[in-house]
Amino acid sequence: MKLNETYKVKIESFDINGYGVTHIDSKIVFVIGGVVGEEDIIEIINIHKKYAFAKLIKIITPSEMRVEPKCPYYEFCGGCDMMHIPYDEEAKIKEFRVSQTLRGLEYNMLPIIKADDIYGYRNKVMVPFCKDIDDDILYGFYEKDSHKIVSIDNCLISDDLTNKIINYICKFLNIFHISIYDELSHKGLFKEVMVRHTKLNEYMVVLVTTDNYDFSNLVDYLTKEFNEIKSIYLNINSKKTNVVLSNEYKLLYGNETIVEDILGLKFNVSPSSFMQVNNSQCEKLYSEAIRLANLNKDMNVIDAYCGMGSITLNIAKNVNKVYGIEIVDSAINNANKNKELNNVNNAEFILGPCEEKIKELANLTNIDVIFFDPPRKGCDIEFLNTVISMKIPKIIYISCNIATCARDIKILEENGYKLETVRPTDLFPRTLHVETVCLLTKK
Ligand SMILES: C[S@@+](CC[C@H](N)C(=O)[O-])C[C@H]1O[C@@H](n2cnc3c(N)ncnc32)[C@H](O)[C@@H]1O
């Protein structure tokens, strides 16, 4: 096999990333965009010792499984990965991704919880802006593994109103010749727009710039055009960084927060709050996590990495006491307000890193169940060691990154825990990402 050479191959299966799998000279080749059962001409783009990567050049005999992507930008945009196959196949690939990553462990794998709506589900969208060669302002998403913006005007996994709001802002920027930030020269004003909304139909818009600017015109136009906008912020981020939002927020219009409903409880959502991006699937995820925990009114529970308390307050309905631990100050403020908003009096929120704060709880009371829902990098070893030393009977691990989850579960299995049940849940249809709930018990 040679780099940049083309080959005619048959795609044998899918791998855990949804790539087509074939073999050339007994070496495994992952074909980006390849679909099981079809004959393709592929070009080798990358060769490693045991495997290679290829891109699809031409489909000779299409597979019955291949579908026409609904999105015209799919080929270029880095946002979605699965639009060329049916949703049922996507769901199978996600189950395979989870089971393969957890291989070597024995447990009961429950079927993936599929989404009812595979388009229009995202409740938070961030889009960068740039100028094209004609000096027109445009926006879009980044190409895969690149900082090149693919210009779009309608994203199918965002909702209609979000698309309209972003379109409107883009027109305003063009008409008023607002200066656009250029990453290379680090000059210019306007960087990105974030739009988030809730199922109660409240919208929040965040304009991200490098400096303060009077956007009162835009705010007037936007709020007259879109009644659903309840809050507009300016976020000033002058740093040359990949982190889009700074801590400097200025409220330009309306309420500080918008309100979300999760399983019948109300949550104030601020621009920096973490909230799952797919509300209806989030409700299924939380319900499944709570079901697997088999909670009762005598139990004391910890919800580590609790964000604005959306799982914590739903756990509170079922237990004696629940402690939420979270490192972000504003999230804990939200969580405390959300606790009042819902008249919950058996939840306590603790500000600080889980690694430290869990030690205080270890000496305080007996804990029956611990939930953890860490960021993509997974749990810190110091945190896991304390959980192990506390001999907590049950762990519910919710993860958006099955690789780090598997790493942490292996540590827990080596230290007296048994992985019992795994339930993948699809919060991100049409993309590769999958959320997973795992139940572990103390042996
Ligand atoms: C994946 S989110 C989960 C939030 C919440 N459970 C939910 O479902 O909305 C992870 C949360 O962990 C918080 N976090 C990250 N590192 C942390 C740490 N070392 N200690 C406590 N919280 C942390 C983040 O700020 C974020 O709110």
Textual characterization of the structure:
- An eight-stranded mixed beta sheet has the order 7-22-23-21-20-17-18-19, sandwiched between helices.
- Strand 8 and strand 9 form a beta hairpin.
- It is built from nine helices and 23 strands.
- Helix 7 packs parallel to helix 8.
- The model has no long low-confidence stretch (mean pLDDT 96).
- The protein has helices spanning 87-101, 160-175, 216-225, 279-293, 310-316, 329-341, 354-364, 381-390, 402-414, and strands at 6-10, 13-14, 20-24, 27-32, 39-47, 51-61, 108-109, 124-131, 137-142, 149-151, 190-197, 203-209, 229-236, 249-254, 258-262, 265-269, 300-304, 321-326, 347-351, 369-372, 394-399, 417-425, 435-442.
- The chain has 443 residues and is an alpha/beta fold.
- 25% of the residues lie in helices and 31% in strands.
- S-adenosylmethionine is lined by residues 274-276, 305-307, 310-311, 325-328, 331, 353-355, 373-375.
Percent of residues in β-strands: 25-35%
Q: Major β-sheet, in short?
A: 8 strands, mixed
**Spatial shape:** globular
Instruction: Identify the strand order in the major beta sheet.
Output: 7-22-23-21-20-17-18-19
Low-confidence blocks of residues: none
Quick overview:
With 443 residues, the protein is α/β, with parallel strands linked by helices.
